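Because discrete structure vocabularies remain unfamiliar, we reproduce here a specimen of the format, pairing a chain with its fold in token form:
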Amino acid sequence: DLYGPVLLRLKDRKGGEYHLGPTHEEIITDMVRREVKSYRQLPINLYQIQMKYRDEARPRAGLMRCREFMMKDAYSFDVSEEKAFESYAIMREAYHRIFKSLGLDYRIVQADSGQIGGKTSAEFQVLAQSGEDRIVACTQCDYAANVEVAEARIDTTKADFSATPERLLVKTPKTKSIEQVVAFFAKDDAPKSADGAFGTNRILKTLAYLVPSKGDKRAPDAVATADEIALVVVRGDHEVNEILVARALGVEEVHLASEADVKAVLGVGPGFVGPVAPKSSLRTLVDHAAAAVADGVCGANQWDHHFAHVAYGRDFEGEVLHLRLVGAGDECPKCGGKLEAYRGIEGGHIFVLGTHYSSQMKATFLDENGESKPFVMGCYGIGVTRLMASAIEQHHDADGIRWPMSIAPYQATVLGLGNEPEVTEAAEKLYLALKKKGVDVLFDDRQERPGVKFKDADLVGIPLRISIGKRGLAEGKAEVKLRTEKDATMVALEEAADVIAAKIVELGGKLS
């Protein structure tokens, strides 16, 4: 149920229901439950390279996010939490070596365990501007985290409203968005804060979240009640971290309430909701930064109206917590250094699951005292197809792909330029010499113009291109060019195979 609509469901002709696996923790746990009975058989770590299926709402970017994809999974089973963390550390180091060998620029970051479960997890984020994930990393220490779980040093100072004017109800027609509210209060005749106009950092953005009871199945047309709505207050220049909100409310996940739900409970639509005296008594969560605003603006819970000169502790109350997404410029929670923001593509994810699955599935073993104990588990995944797309995101230019040597489809390509028999013969001779040395090489012997062959070689992105033409052959030389460099070099034909093999090893490739 946690996967919701992402879980691919289907029926056979007899009406039997089937699910296509989005992940395989249950299947592997069941197998180990049947085969492993004693602590003497532990630890054990099983892996597979298998297809996964998820009914993604927005498949995108080719192999980056699709409904059918290949993953490398591993699952560890240990006798204790201490041993499980040892297995986790071993796999973390193994993944580090894998990603490093792939030639990728990546970060290992703290992450949310999500639907998989468990309390400890880390993502291997491949840095790319096109990435869906947002991560932060400290410039002075090794702290890095997905913004979903990122922390920062928080100023817990409450608002000093001793000099704040009385709360003022202001008519603000058609000002729903933060930008519209800021623009309205920037007008000459609009109320002002003590230091001038009300900027985004003085807007108390108030969002209504739907928080159904655990296990509650709402009808599609059901309207929320007051006990299903919680208000979350953050500054206008901050974003809500919904994972932290869900944790604060003790539920798996939260969603923004629909306009119909907001109107039913608060009597007003989104854009004019505020924490001051709402129509219904609602649980209100306030971010630390919002609680520190001594003179702010918020929705007045009336159509086309806002309150100016509002402060937490005087005009409204609530539970003060860390509820916002951390961003660039925030202070590192470990050392106080500045955090920088990046975009990333999740290429791998590792988890300590604990007994999340084994306890529920009654997967147990007998310990050294003969007592039945649940396996303490970990799971580890690498998105094989996504890593291919990630590598291209990091290694390309206007002409095509620039594969790192370690994962290129071929290490080198030999091009025969021209239709002369002696050119073809020399190119094939070099091709065979390279194969003999263990080079994974492609021989382009097509009857095409040199420009076409050069263009295709750049497009495919093979790291080394070796060209033999009539003029070079007359001089006993071949042209060698790296895909990542603009200029080529001429190499004596009798030395070419040795030079190319050595260059491949230098660039991190292996000879078979």
Q: What stands out?
A: Residues 81-101 form the longest helix (21 residues). The chain has three domains: 4-152+335-394, 168-321, 401-506. The chain has a mean pLDDT of 91. The CA atoms of residues 24 and 73 lie 8 Å apart.
